[in-house]
Amino acid sequence: MISQCLLKPTPEEIAGTHVLFLARHALDSSPERRAKFGYHVVYHAILLNALRSLGFRVTPASEHAVLFGPLDFDFLYAIHSHAIFDGHELLTPAIAAYRGVPCLGASAPTRAISEDKVLAKQVAVSAGLDVAGHQIINPGDVDRNGFRLAGSWILKPRGGIASDAVIKVDSEADWPGALTAISDPRHEGRDFIAEEFVPGLNLTVPVVEGFPPGSLAVFQETGRPGDNVLTNEGKRGLNNTYTSAPYEGPGAKEALKATADMAAQVSPFDYARFDFRYDPTTRRTVFIEVNIACNMAPASAVYRAAAMHGIKYEELVAHVLTYSFRRQRKGPKASPKPTSTPSKAHADRTPRAL
Fold first, then answer.
1. Bridge partners of 61?
2. Residues 171-216 pLDDT 10s
3. Which of 41, 98, 169, 331 could be 153's S-S partner, Cβ–Cβ 3.0 to 4.6 Å?
4. What is the mean pLDDT of the chain?
5. How far apart, in Å, are the Cα atoms of 286 and each of 76, 209, 333?
6. CATH of 2-105+310-331, one of 3.90.550, 3.40.50, 3.30.70, 3.30.1150
7. What is the CATH number of domain 133-197?
8. Phi, psi of 64, deg, nearest 5
9. Residues 231 and 241 sit within 8 Å (Cβ to Cβ)
């Protein structure tokens, strides 16, 4: 049973661990902010309360700038992945590794697979998974009037999150308008990926490390009517186009198998969600992306899959944090007398042994 695999922090770990909670909405969960940004505001508030309810000393922060100051913390619980710059998922784990602080999720090189949809597909292919045909598009290098691709395509930021800026291109005549849209200054010239549209179902497979492989249910995510495409507005709860539910129908076993193969390539990652499109007509299971340290709100597939086994929300948060912290904890080492004065960059952080 999964419940028998749940990890809990010891009283000593709780007393000796200062957690930095880094999330976009960690400092403001006001109704005004929720109206603007949607359910993620509520999620970050719930997660912060859960961490505190476990007894940890928790300091919330909402800007990456905190990582460049003194890190008087023992663990970085970082879910801030909404910044618009290349490498936004790599920044926190890279700095944490340099500063010697354990950090939620995978290492920086592996987080690149989570951020970069093109790189993720290459890793998936190496693991034997099927991926949709795709092409990198740089808005500044494309002739808006001359560029065309035949067929139906999904256009989205190469390093995007939460289905932001997703555009469906149904015909060659739609390309000029789509290319104009991705050239909007808000995208800051970032690369987009054009991905062949795969009809069918959206299947997502949550994985929590420390639980038996394949023990969490597959979920089907339903998007907007017609093409079943998932949108940012739907995921944020700003309209009623998004729903999700456990799924055991055609394609579920294939998605579980593909997830196991891909997870083996990117472990350790603490917890993640692996997304697929399944075409019932062709029985094709197509890997879309992997989301490491993804949404783990009470309404998420990750938690709802765990709840099906009787796991409470605070218990899941405790397990993920404890698993992550313990796998990164280093054993005690002898401390020889320094032969030189350490640089200020290294002197401001000494990892604590619990």
1. 22
2. 999 999 999 999 988 888 889 999 999 999 999 999 999 999 999 9
3. 169
4. 89
5. 33, 23, 46
6. 3.40.50
7. 3.30.1490.20
8. -65, -20
9. yes
E strand or H helix that includes residue 221 = strand 219-222
- How crowded is the C-beta side of 345, counted as CA atoms within 13 Å? 5
* SS3 letters across 123-150: HHHHCCCEECCEEEECCCCCCCCCCCCC
pTM of the model: 0.89
User: Using CA of residue 109, residue 113, residue 115, residue 117, what is the dihedral sign?
Assistant: positive
Q: What separation, in Å, do the N-terminal and C-terminal C-alpha atoms of the chain show? A: 29
Q: Do domains 2-105+310-331 and 133-197 have the same CATH topology?
A: no
pLDDT tens-digit readout, 308-335: 999 999 999 999 999 999 999 875 433 3
- The whole-number pLDDT of residue 82 equals 66
Mean pLDDT, rounded, for 288-302 = 95
Among 267, 216, 253, which residue's Cα sits nearest to residue 110? Answer: 267
Q: How many C-beta atoms lie closer than 10 Å to residue 183's C-beta?
A: 14
Give 38's DSSP letter. T
Q: Left, alpha or beta for 10 (phi > 0: left; psi -120 to 50: alpha)?
A: beta
Helix (H, G, I), strand (E, B) or coil at 63: coil
> Could you tell me if 236 and 162 are in contact, meaning their C-beta atoms sit under 8 angstroms apart?
yes
Question: What's the rounded Cα separation, in Å, for the pair 210 and 188?
Answer: 39
Give the model confidence (pLDDT) of 103-124 as tens digits.
999 999 999 999 999 999 999 9
| 15 pLDDT higher than 90 | yes
* DSSP character at residue 211: B
Domain positions in the chain are 2-105+310-331, 133-197
Q: Has residue 353 got a pLDDT over 70?
A: no
Query: Which tens digits make up the pLDDT trace of 138-158?
Result: 988 887 778 989 999 999 999
